[in-house]
Amino acid sequence: MSDKPQSFTNHGRIHTPFHLVLLPIFFINFVGCVVWLVRAPGFFTTWSVVMAIALLVLLMLVRTNPMKVQDRVIRLEERLRLSALLPQPLQARIPELTVDQLVGLRFASDAELPALVDRTLRENLNRKQIKQAIVSWRADDWRV
């Protein structure tokens, strides 16, 4: 976490062990295996390329599956939050919000949330548009 307040421009996160260590190593391994296959074709070099692809797929699943679980938790948290903060007419429309929209709305402060939900439903805003529309940012330092 940084000392700088979180905002739309700085809320993205680089996870050093994944983005700067594992991803480059697995990609370099894949390229090396392909080069090895071109230089010395055979069963074992072909198998090494297959295994390198499998490792890259595994690496992507290790990243995307927890993010999907995180989005499910955010969906639940935001629906509860919206139930507590929205006026009755908007509460009835909570099920119309997509997971993508709920994920974007999590950064909105309690004060601006009702107006932003109304606008999101009227204009069908996506996650990025919602985040850009937020004036008072509510930091989320627990995300994966």
Tell me about this structure:
- The chain has helices at about 15-40, 45-85, 90, 100-105, 115-125, 125-135.
- With about 140 residues, it is an all-alpha fold.
- Helix 1 packs antiparallel against helix 2.
- The chain has 6 helices and no strands.
- The mean pLDDT is about 90.
- It has one domain (about 15-135).
- The longest helix is centred in the middle third of the chain and has 43 residues, at about 45-85.
Brief rundown of the structure:
By secondary structure, the chain is mostly helical. The chain contains 6 helices and no strands. The protein starts with 15 loop residues before the first helix and ends in an 11-residue tail after the last helix.
How many β strands by DSSP? Answer: 0
Order of helices and strands: HHHHHH
- How much of the sequence lies in strands comes to under 5%
Number of helices: 6
Low-confidence runs of at least 5 consecutive residues: none
Largest sheet: none
Radius of gyration: 21 Å
Structural domains: how many: 1
Tell me, briefly, the overall form. elongated
Mean pLDDT: 92
Helical/strand content category: mainly alpha
Helix content: 55-70%
The end-to-end span amounts to 12 Å
What key attributes describe this structure?
mainly alpha; 144 residues; single chain
Write the layout of secondary structure elements.
Blueprint: H1 16-39, H2 43-85, H3 88-91, H4 99-105, H5 113-123, H6 127-133
Helix pairs in contact: 1-2, 2-4, 4-6
